[in-house]
Amino acid sequence: MHVPDGFINAPVSATAGLLSIGSIWASTKAANRFLADKLIAIAGMMSALIFALQMINFPIGAGTSGHLLGGALAVIILGPSLGILCVSIVVIIQALIFADGGLSALGINILNISIVTGLVGWCVIDLWKKFFGDRSSSLIIGSFIAGLFSVVMSSVAFVAEYALGGTVSVELGSVFIAMVTSHFLIGVGEGFITALILSLLLKVRPDMVFIAKNERVEKKSTSIVGVLLFLSCSLIFLAPLASSSPDGLETVAEEFNFDYSDKTVTFLQGYSIPSISNSFISIVISGLLGILVLTIFLNLYLNIARKES
Amino acid sequence: MSGDHIQSHLNTESPLIEIEPAQKIISVLILALSLAFNDIRNPLKFNLILICIICFVFVSIPSINYLLRRMYVIIPFILFAFLLPFISKSGTTIYLYKDIAIYQNGLFEMSNILLKSIAGVSMAVALSATTSQFDIVRGLEKLKLPKIFVAILSFALRYISVYISEFKRVKLSMKSRGFNSKSLTDSVAIAYAGSAMLIRGFERGEKVYSSMISRGFDGNLFITSKKWNQSKLLYFLCITTLLVNILGYFS
After folding, report:
1. Is residue A297 part of a domain?
2. Average pLDDT over residues A156-175
3. Higher-confidence position of B247 and A284
4. What residues make up the domain containing A115?
5. Is A259–B92 a contact, with Cβ atoms under 8 angstroms apart?
6. Does residue A242 form part of some domain?
7. Is the pLDDT of residue A199 over 80?
8. A262 and A176 in one domain?
9. Dihedral angle, C-alpha B159, A58, A94, B70, nearest 10 °
């Protein structure tokens, strides 16, 4: 599901955009060694295939339908850096050329569809490989679980963005239940298809599956430290921005004689933590939360880059 | 060349067709982001930016029909937006008929989502109406995106259409062998068809790559550069939007 413009408010979109830019930058840095390699052509083919797979909607009951995301498949076959890059490119093509998903929500879509699915899928399959060995049967079961988890976590990421900056005041709990249950069903489909595709690939061309290869190349982690610094700085700058915009609105609302206090209660809740009355403390807490999430993300990245290289 | 049926239908009569793609991409992003960063409860700024966007869209597209036909992707969100006044329970209540009520806050949210998503989609449609897919790649390369990113992007764009036509062919041949998906076990056949396509694609990728190497590929994609013009209209729209944002911020 691609989020259109205007669904998530601007500060959260901008933060997601910065996170996406940083992640894409880190993965291009890690993937640069493939530039003169045949993997680059294969990565292009993989993006094209994921695009084609995302076009197929399948019904999941109750009048809704879902489509594959393909993040887990991409990281299993191409490795985390190229895999995340591939799916990000699919999302960018969809937004710029096929008008699917909003332009200002591009960061959110990249974050949900490629980065979260890619990271979660890679973590699951990597842990699975560590615990159950790299026989093809265990990898196939692991890929099913990776596909399932990646889609569910992608929907959880959407709910988190909605909680931080949703522009509509539909109850958070009902959004959570609707998103996660429907995406559990989509995830079962995704895991099933991921496992089947991987099983055939392992039979026919096992040399093409990254997870079955145990590649080792030299280390390259300075770029990731740079990304950490860049993103934490930008988040620190964005945190006060996230809190200042309602103030501007407040004055405008008063200027145009809106019954401000009555209408924008839920709107304010989107920016800060609702249960805390002191705005400064809630801003600081939300900023710290953001940086915490970021650090977890980048730690994952560091580990992955180390394992990959 | 096989499978070029999703090449976008360019609007050759638009004045923006000869304009540098990088400039078009940047202007679209500026317009979309400034619309997203403004709120509908601030009507003056919002409407000024909306007028700029409408100018851009109407200079680009050939007809309204063209726009409407390509907007189908946001239909679910439009339907959801029309539900909002009924389910978003806050703000002043307006009674339509006896117990059926709508909420003012929900009305704001509905118009916010409707306007922003429709504007976003029509801008993307307008961009693809005046810029071919490969010109968009050229533009992104000119904007100094990483080489590997641009390379994968151009590969993906070239082979999406190939994959889609191949997928249709596979579906047709499965159908002619008497396949109709009814039970869950049939999805195994679909997944195997997909992975067969993937393997075929991988092998095609290897062949394409070796032929590129033999033609002297070293990581740079576009050697020939095209002459582009700069558009005064786009400069005007972008500067107006930025001014509206900046002045609105300080006033």
Report:
1. no
2. 80
3. B247
4. 10-214
5. yes
6. yes
7. yes
8. no
9. 110
Cross-strand bridge partners of residue A58: A66
* Mode of pairing for the β-strands spanning A57-59 and A65-67: antiparallel
DSSP classification of residue A110:
I
Picking from A152, A116, A132, A298, the residue whose alpha carbon sits closest to that of residue A211 is: A132
- A99 — contact with chain B (CB < 8 Å)? yes
Query: Each residue of A90-111: pLDDT tens digit?
Result: 998 888 877 777 788 888 899 8
| Separation CA B155–CA A247 (nearest Å) | 46
CB contact under 8 A, B89 and A2: no
Q: Please state the length of chain A.
A: 309
Contact status, residue B52 vs residue B31, Cβ threshold 8 Å = yes
Domain shared by A60 and A193, yes or no: yes
In a mutational test of the A interface, the residue from B39, B90, B206 whose CB has the highest number of chain A CBs within 10 Å is B39
* Cβ-proximal residues to B197 (8 Å cutoff; 6+ apart), any chain: A49, B163, B166, B167, B170
Distance from CA of B98 to the nearest CA of A (A): 23
ipTM score assigned to the predicted complex:
0.79
A57 in reach of chain B (CB within 8 A): no
> Which pair of tokens denotes residue B147?
């080489």
A125 and A266 inside one domain: no
A204 and A263 assigned to the same domain = no
Is the CB of residue B148 less than 8 Å away from at least one CB of chain A? yes
Q: Do A282 and A179 share a structural domain? A: no
* Confidence label for A146 from pLDDT (cuts 50, 70 and 90): very high
**How many Cβ pairs within 8 Å bridge chains A and B?**
242
Q: Would you call B165 an interface residue with chain A, using a CB distance cutoff of 8 Å?
A: no
Last residue of a domain, one of A214, A241, A272: A214
- pLDDT above 80: residue A294: no
Q: Which of A8, A15, A42, A143 to mutate to test the interface with B (most CBs of B within 10 A)?
A: A42
Per-residue pLDDT band at A88 (split at 50, 70, 90): very high
Which pLDDT score is estimated for B160?
Answer: 83
Contact B116 A6 (CB under 8 A): yes
Task: Quote the number of domains for chain A.
Answer: 2
The reply to whether A303 falls in a domain is no
Using a CB-CB cut-off of 8 Å, the residues of chain A touching B158 are 44, 48
| Contact assignment for B120 to A104 by CB distance below 8 Å | yes
More confident residue, B123 or A242: B123
The nearest CA of chain A is from the CA of B153 a distance in Å of 6
Do A30 and A123 belong to one domain?
yes
Per the domain annotation, does A95 fall within a domain? Answer: yes
Element (H, E) at B250: helix B232-250
- pTM for the model stands at 0.76
Task: Please report residues of A whose CB lies closer than 8 A to that of B206.
Answer: 38, 41-42
